[in-house]
Amino acid sequence: MPKYLALFRAVNVSGHNIIKMDHLKKLMTAEGYQNVQTYIQSGNVVFEKDETDKAKLKRDIETLLYKEYGHDVFNFILDETELQKAVDNNPFTGPEPEPSGVKKYFVAFLSGDATPQGNDQLKKYNRSDDEFKTVDNILYLKLSQSAADSKFSNSFIEGKLGLKSTTRNWNTTLKLLEMLKGN
If you ran DSSP here, which 8-state letter would residue 164 be given? Predict the structure, then answer.
């Protein structure tokens, strides 16, 4: 049975779009999703479903969340191959976890491929030493300080690229890949 990762955009952030992961796990299981696992409170769900159309899975999960919680929650559906590619293509770090402390490596998953014009907008308005590189529908970030000190919020990324995005730190990305692999 195919195994997927759902990344939710903007849940449990600053008291908005609250979704308790234990409740979500029960809800998805009741709706026929199998072996549902959640990871931390920011909306990361690994599951199995006898469905190969990821666009349909995305729509079904968005509908389920709206019916249950009343939130329009955009989500990204990835399989192991796609997440492995995202890890392998990171130009700033290898596949090792980042040491404890301030996190500087992030992966922003995008709803489409970044255009050269969008990248130019990111460069134009990046007023710090933060580095970024887009590879297809992934934006890799190497922050000079911390996420709190960076211009690269999801709102900033979306405004400049004209795409939806959701961002995970490097260690979370690696953990999610491990979960997809069943480790």
Answer: -
